[in-house]
Structures are given as C-alpha cells and as structure tokens.
C-alpha cells in the first residue's frame, strides 16, 4: 500500500485512538482536587498527546486526506476537541496559559468557518452548536466583550436556522441555552464600561501604600493558593454551569496580564476585512501566539474549585481534599452564595444565645478569645448545651426537591477550622454562621457575612435573581455595585467621569491600606492575610461596602442591611471613622447622589 493510500487509514486510527482516550476523561471532575488517579491527572497528558499527534498528522497530510474525502468540519471537530481539553485543563489548574490556548483554537475555528455548510447534516450542526457554546464560555471568562457580542448573535441565528432546516428535530434545549447566555450578558453588561474584575497591578496596587505593604510584618503570614466557589439561587443568572456570582468571584481571584489581552479590543471579522482562508492548506493554528499574550512576571493564579449545585457530601469531600493538601503556611478561601431558611427571628435567637454563651465565660478581653498553647489555638467557648445552634439554620445549595442532601449547616464546616479558613457567606441567612466564632477546632476563622437583605434606591427595578448578589458585586466590582445601589448610570461614553470616580475609590483604598498595615489593633486573623494581594483587596472592598451600606439612607432599618466581619476590623476603618466617612462623602458628592445618604 502506497503512502498516499495509507494516509486516510492512519488518520482514522489516530482519530479512534484519540477519541477512546478522551472518553476516559470525559466525565472527570473539572477542578484541581479530583484525585490523582490515572483517569484524572496523568491521563490528561496522554489525551493531549493523542490529539496533538492527530492534529499534526492532518496538517502534514492535508492534501492527501482531502483527496480521500476529509471534510472541513472534521478538522474543526479536532480543533474544537483540543480547545475543550485546554479549557478543561484551565478549570483543573487555574493556569491562564491553558485558557489562552483554548481561545486560540476556538478563534481559528470561528474565523476559518470549519463548520460552515452544516445545514445538510444534523450531526454536524450539533457539533457546531456545541462549538459556539464552548467558545462563548471561554470568551466570557477572558472578558473578550466584543467577541462575546458577536458570538451571541451568531449563536442565536444558528439556533433559529436549525429550527427551519431541521424541522423534525427538537431544539428546545438549545433555545434555552440562547436565553441563558442573553440573560447572562445582559446582567454582566456593566463590566463592559469598567475595569477588569481580575487583579490588575496598574489599578489595584497603590504607589502611596506600597512601601507600607512591603514593610508589613505579622507574627504569621499566610499564603493564598486554594479556593472553593459555589452558588445557588432559584432562577439565578447562569450560563451552562457557571453562575453570575461564581463568575465574578472566579475572575476577581485571578491576575490580569499587563499585556491587556483580557481587555476588550475590536473583533476583526474575516467577512469585512481580509478574506477568510477556505483553502485545503488552511489549518495551521499558531499555538506560539500564547507567548505574546501571557505575562511571565505575574505569580500563578490561586487554584479554584468551582462547583455547580453540589450535594453537601460532594462539597465537604472537596473541602476535605483541599485541607488535606493545604500547606501549613496557607489559607483556604471558601465562598458560598446561597439562600437559606430566612426566618430573621432565628438569627435573633442565635444572637441571644451568643450573649448567653459569652456571659458564662471567664472575663477576658475580646481580643484574646483564642490563646496559642502548644502550637494550637485553644477554644475557650464551651459548646455544651448549645450544639443545636450549629444545626438549626442552614444554606440550600440546590433545589428543594433534592431534600436534605443540599442543606449545609454552619456546624458542617467546624471540622475544617483545624486549618486556616477565610469564609465568605453571601446569603439571606448569612448571620447564622456567626456561631462559628469560638467553635473553631484549631484555627480562628476569618468571616465575611453578607447583609440579610440587599439595599437599593429603586428596589422595584433591581432583582437579585437577574443581577446577581449585591454583596458579591461589592467584593468584585465596588464601583459598579455602588452605582447599582444608588441607581446611577455610569456610561461607557463618559470616560472622564468613570476615571475620576475610580480615582476617588483608589485614593480611599490606598489610605485604608496604609491604616491596616500600621494598625496596632489589627487582629492576627486579618493580619496574617494582609500580605496577599487578592485577600487584601477583598478586605478593602469589604470596608467600602460596609461603609456605603451603613451610611445609606436605609441604615436605620436595622442590621439586616449591613455586612459583618468576624473578628472585627480596627475601629479606624469603621464606617464613621475619620478615614472612611469623608471618602464616602467625596464619592457621593462627586456623583451627585446625596439624596441617597441623608446623614452626609
């Protein structure tokens, strides 16, 4: 058999081999803590190797394969599978280079129209629909706004065309996917006119306070390398298995390359610019482009497990895996956004019981609730007779039809307080988790607890199900959250207003950063987190959120509208302090929204 005759046969063997290997990792959990078995870590390398060998072979033998009947959609399917593998590896490692590789392959498929002409084959049309959904996900996470807009329109048109050309096929599920992505992009539309959610050295590090951060020292400094993110709210905005809340938090825990590749730039359509390459020799995808898009000067991103509607046992299993691998000098961030049993009387009962518990303690300074003995923090708060407090209130991590498998109690997290834990609860029942303070089993936990109810100037037009949780919005995009609160439209056209407003907030954050770095009243729980840029930024944004909501006109209606941090941050950064209130006053005056803040 000649080499020309052998090429198609070899190609098919390579395709079958690659698909067989891919099948073994198809259902592998897409997070870093799924285990180290061959079906997870090591075997991913074999799948990559099989598909890259297949890709190289089709490039080197394109003419022979085309003569023997190779279709363009087959090339597109191989490239799409490689893009999918890269994206899955990004989810498993949080390494930006894998996300960029996925984008390179997907963009090449899109520009070269490998799936064009799928109107004649229903199977090919489904492959094309799946490609668009995956490319949309990658473009969303990369914050490639213009590409997302173009893809959404093309995706919608493709689903509409499918209903016409394949009348015997039900495309209801794909219509729902279109509705999901349109809701998602509408809810996230404000980010198009704002700074990236990712940590941007240019915007998020402040020259005036950098020397204070550099000199800051505490008895113990923890590194942030691991996070778990999950959210569930009825009818929440989501795309595929990524909810709006976890999307925002995911981005805020990553670095923005200084090359600004993630930032929006015009999309050059091959239709209106240079001609699309439809020749048989097309198919060379320059994987070396990644070198021009990454920033070697940035540290690696923290690893993140993004869980979609996990059962409580699944959640606890992943938390346990993180704790097992967590180095002794590191902290785990746990972000939970979910509704709970929202009976506020239950929360009052928790607070009353807290008072009862504290009154039974020996007199001690509030700053000395934990003492270090033999290398461990000893808990002075006795839980005898009050253990039910840890299992009265809860969060629902999934639909109620799943029963108790989705119910997470505060007490479920106590075993994991043997390791440093930074817990962020965004819920209408968040205050129920105050009982964790003093119940830790080795390490005092740091807690951010959201308000029980959101605040808005015009609450009739703001729906959390359509816009995401307000507290999470403050922690990830503080200016946009403030504008949403006071119903101020910060348009993309008014760049001067946007820049000047961001400058006011940056100046305030720089000042508060200096105060925290020099404070003698800063609890060790917070001091040991302060050297990490991601966690320090979260702390600064919490101070901003708490101050804004405290000074907002609804403040007299009770603590249910205010977030809580445990333990308390220094009074020098409280809402009414000399360092904080004037900054909020300046922001309010600048945007001319003083009517929302009656005391300013």
Automatic annotation (TrEMBL):
<dbReference type="InterPro" id="IPR016137">
    <property type="entry name" value="RGS"/>
</dbReference>
<feature type="compositionally biased region" description="Polar residues">
    <location>
        <begin position="342"/>
        <end position="367"/>
    </location>
</feature>
<feature type="domain" description="RGS">
    <location>
        <begin position="78"/>
        <end position="183"/>
    </location>
</feature>
<dbReference type="InterPro" id="IPR022709">
    <property type="entry name" value="SCAI"/>
</dbReference>
<feature type="region of interest" description="Disordered">
    <location>
        <begin position="342"/>
        <end position="369"/>
    </location>
</feature>
<dbReference type="Pfam" id="PF12070">
    <property type="entry name" value="SCAI"/>
</dbReference>
<protein>
    <submittedName>
        <fullName>Protein SCAI-like</fullName>
    </submittedName>
</protein>
């Amino acid at each position: 058999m000649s080499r020309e005759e052998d090429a198609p046969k070899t190609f098919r063997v390579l395709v079958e081999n690659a698909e067989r290997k891919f099948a073994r990792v198809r259902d592998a959990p897409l997070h870093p803590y799924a285990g180290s078995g061959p079906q997870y870590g090591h075997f991913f390398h074999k799948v990559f190797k099989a598909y890259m060998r297949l890709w190289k072979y089709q490039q080197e033998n394109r003419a022979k394969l085309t003569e023997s009947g190779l279709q363009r959609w087959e090339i597109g399917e191989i490239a799409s599978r490689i893009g999918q593998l890269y994206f899955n590896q990004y989810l498993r490692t949080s390494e930006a280079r894998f996300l960029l590789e996925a984008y390179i392959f997907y963009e090449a498929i899109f520009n070269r129209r490998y799936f064009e002409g799928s109107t004649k084959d229903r199977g090919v049309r489904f492959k094309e629909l799946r490609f668009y959904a995956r490319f949309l996900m990658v473009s969303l996470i990369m914050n490639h706004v213009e590409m997302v807009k173009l893809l959404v329109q093309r995706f919608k048109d493709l689903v509409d065309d499918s209903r016409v050309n394949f009348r015997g096929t039900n495309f209801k599920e794909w219509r729902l996917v279109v509705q999901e992505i349109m809701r998602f992009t509408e809810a996230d539309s404000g980010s198009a006119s704002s700074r990236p959610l990712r940590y941007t050295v240019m915007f998020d590090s402040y020259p005036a306070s950098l020397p204070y951060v550099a000199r800051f020292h505490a008895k113990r400094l923890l590194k942030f390398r691991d996070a778990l993110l999950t959210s569930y709210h009825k009818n929440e905005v989501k795309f595929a298995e990524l909810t709006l809340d976890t999307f925002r938090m995911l981005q805020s825990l990553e670095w923005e390359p200084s090359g600004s590749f993630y930032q929006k730039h015009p999309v050059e359509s091959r239709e209106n610019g240079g001609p699309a390459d439809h020749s048989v020799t097309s198919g060379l995808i320059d994987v070396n482009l990644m070198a021009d898009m990454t920033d070697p000067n940035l540290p690696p991103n923290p690893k993140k497990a993004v869980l979609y509607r996990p059962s409580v046992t699944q959640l606890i299993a992943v938390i346990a895996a993180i704790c097992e691998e967590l180095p002794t000098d590191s902290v785990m961030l746990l972000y939970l956004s979910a509704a709970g049993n929202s009976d506020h009387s239950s929360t009052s009962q928790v607070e009353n019981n807290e008072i009862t518990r504290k009154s039974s303690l020996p007199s001690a300074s509030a700053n000395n609730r934990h003492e270090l003995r033999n290398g461990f923090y000893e808990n002075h708060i006795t839980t005898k007779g009050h253990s039910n407090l840890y299992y009265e209130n809860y969060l629902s991590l999934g639909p109620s039809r799943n029963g108790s498998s989705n119910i997470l109690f505060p007490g479920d997290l106590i075993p994991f307080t043997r390791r440093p834990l930074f817990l962020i609860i965004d819920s209408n029942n968040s205050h129920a988790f105050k009982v964790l303070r003093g119940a830790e089993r080795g390490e005092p936990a740091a807690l951010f607890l959201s308000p029980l109810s959101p605040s808005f100037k015009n609450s009739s037009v703001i729906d959390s199900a359509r816009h995401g949780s307000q507290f999470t919005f403050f922690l990830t995009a503080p200016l946009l959250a403030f504008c949403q609160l006071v119903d101020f439209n910060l348009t993309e056209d008014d760049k001067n207003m946007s820049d000047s407003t961001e400058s006011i907030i940056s100046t305030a954050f720089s000042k508060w950063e200096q105060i925290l770095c020099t404070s003698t009243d800063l609890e060790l729980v917070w001091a040991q987190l302060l050297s990490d840029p991601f966690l320090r930024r979260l702390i600064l944004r919490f101070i901003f959120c708490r101050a804004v909501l405290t000074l907002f006109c609804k403040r007299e209606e009770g603590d249910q509208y205010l977030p809580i941090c445990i333990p308390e941050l220094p009074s020098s950064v409280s809402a009414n302090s000399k360092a904080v209130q004037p900054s909020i006053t300046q922001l309010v005056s600048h945007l001319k929204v003083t009517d929302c803040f009656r005391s300013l």
